[in-house]
């Protein structure tokens, strides 16, 4: 490895880093800025998705399209997932644009408090991985379908409405953050 890495034999340093950055497995690639502040804990996923490093240093995007390679992030904590009918080419992009201002607002609010945002935001189209996620979480095939999935708590929150609007998303997120929603088991 031509880059700086912690030797596997250095258990004390690995243990401190595991606690500091919440590392739960290897390989893990965390990207830090020159001050030592974390840019992303998803460096490994980013390298796999951006082999030529065009988007380096991979600052987190407020809303991600759910893919096989980033689905691991669903295990990191609560995630808002907006399921859409991706056979309509523009629907995934429109869904991202709909939830992006809400995601940016939440991220900025917690960043100002020097805390990690309490939610990750995804748009999920129609593919085998999304079908597997729906099956695993016992979600209906409806689209659009607004959910918050908390895999570690084995809980889901579902808002099944005809039309998803920014107001509906914002109210759903606010109610979740205020513990006003009743979880369903996954």
From TrEMBL:
Pfam families: Thioredoxin_6 (PF13848). GO terms for biological process: negative regulation of protein ubiquitination; negative regulation of Wnt signaling pathway. One of its GO terms (molecular function) is thioredoxin-disulfide reductase (NADPH) activity. GO terms for cellular component: nucleus. This is Nucleoredoxin. It comes from Cyanistes caeruleus (Eurasian blue tit).
């Amino acid at each position: 490895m031509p880059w700086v890495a912690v030797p596997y034999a250095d258990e004390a340093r690995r243990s401190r880093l595991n606690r500091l950055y919440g590392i739960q497995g290897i390989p893990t690639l965390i990207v830090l800025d020159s001050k030592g502040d974390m840019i992303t804990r998803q460096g490994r996923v980013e390298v796999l998705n951006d082999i030529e490093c065009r988007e380096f240093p991979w600052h987190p995007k407020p809303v991600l399209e759910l893919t096989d390679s980033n689905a691991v992030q669903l295990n990191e904590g609560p995630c808002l997932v907006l399921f859409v009918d991706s056979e309509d080419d523009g629907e995934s992009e429109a869904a991202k644009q709909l939830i992006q201002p809400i995601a940016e607002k939440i991220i900025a609010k917690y960043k100002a408090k020097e805390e990690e945002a309490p939610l990750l935001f995804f748009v999920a189209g129609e593919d085998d991985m999304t079908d597997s996620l729906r099956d695993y979480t016992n979600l209906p095939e409806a689209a659009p379908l607004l959910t918050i999935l908390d895999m570690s708590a084995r809980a889901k929150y579902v808002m099944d409405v005809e039309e998803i609007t920014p107001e509906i998303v914002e109210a759903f997120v606010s109610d979740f953050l205020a513990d006003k929603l009743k979880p369903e088991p996954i």
